[in-house]
Amino acid sequence: MRLLKKMWADPVWSKVIGGLITSLIIGASGLLWLVLTKGLHDWAAALWSALFISVPLWVVTTLVVLLCVIVLALKKPSKTGGFLPAGPSRLSIVHADYQAIEGGGKVFDVTECLRAKTELNSLFLEIENHNFTAGSKNYVPDDPKPSKEKRLQVTYSLDGGPQYCIERVEHQRLVLPEEEPEVLTSLRIELFSIRRDLLHFLQEIGDEPKVDGDGPEALASFFGAKNTYLARNKARFDNRFRDRLVRANRRLISEMDIIDREFEVAFNSTCTPQLVKKLVDLIWTIAGKLDVKPG
Fold first, then answer.
1. Spatial distance between the Cα atoms of 29 and 64, rounded to a whole number of angstroms
2. Can you give the pTM of this predicted structure?
């Protein structure tokens, strides 16, 4: 199975496989057409004989085929190619993006792709790099981050109601709507977004410097490296997260009446890997306390 996936992802092999599949489809379609037209021809001949009408049988067959084509053409096609009744979809894709789980690399907006794939108020997708195509457009033309696991995050709503935010990893299936989706308030979605970005930031900063050797020179080198490490991380942390955390904290107080001093102290402290891990855990705990008000 993995070999087939790799072959399909390869641009040359994918064209070869696509050509073989197309040839098989054309051949099968040709045989089916012969069977159907013969059946129509025989049926038309019997009808014409019963009515005692003397008309060449090829004319009868042609008329019946044209009639079928006209009937099919008058049906209203859906955007996915099937014949569905007109009307707006109950499933609304608000936003969707595809990127590496660990962060970094490319981020592809696949919102329009998922909207185009929505059919009969539902969506089914095998999450693979090559499956984000709709019409003639490829929404994921490159691997976001080769050799790294990817994830698809989707925010959607049903019947104009509350928004749901879910994530699925590469090689899984996305099925919408879920049977019992978790209702997420906008504040909870923002907290989860900050938590996700903090996890990526944790990967970026790496481990703290360690003492390399003995003696005063080694200690001086260690303290210098550590101060530089902390100062650099604090600047990056404040630039990327401080305003977001302050706004989220204000909303927690004003909207949810949640005052968490430990949370405030954590994002105002010196930036270390331990602090980031603590923030990640605190955000998860706080998000779990939020009241969910469907509708």
1. 19
2. 0.41
Kindly state whether residues 268 and 203 are assigned to the same domain. Answer: yes
Domain membership of residue 83 (yes or no) is no
Query: What tokens appear for 12 in the block?
Result: 């040359």
Same domain (yes/no): 164, 210:
no
Q: What is the rounded distance in angstroms from the CA atom of residue 229 to the CA atom of residue 126?
A: 42
Residue where a domain stops, chosen among 144, 176, 208: 176
Are residue 207 and residue 148 in the same domain, yes or no? no
The verdict on 100 and 67 lying in the same domain is: no
Contact present, 167 and 161 (Cβ < 8 Å): no
Cα three-residue angle 64-70-73, rounded to 5 degrees = 145
Distance separating alpha carbons of residues 51 and 212, to the nearest angstrom: 102
Same domain for 109 and 149 = yes
| Domain count across the chain | 3
Clarify whether residues 113 and 164 are in a common domain: yes
Residue 86 covered by a domain: no
Q: Mind listing the pLDDT tens digit of every residue in the chain (295 residues)?
A: 555 555 555 555 666 676 677 767 776 665 565 555 556 566 666 665 655 555 565 666 677 677 776 766 665 444 444 444 445 668 899 999 999 988 788 999 999 999 999 876 788 898 999 999 998 999 999 999 998 889 999 999 888 888 888 888 888 888 888 765 555 567 777 888 888 888 888 888 888 888 877 778 888 888 888 899 889 999 999 998 989 999 989 988 887 888 888 888 888 887 888 888 889 888 888 887 775 444 4
Are residues 187 and 248 in contact, defined by beta-carbon separation less than 8 angstroms?
A: yes
Read off the tokens for 76. 């209203």
Quick one: which of 221, 236, 94 has its CA closest to 165?
94
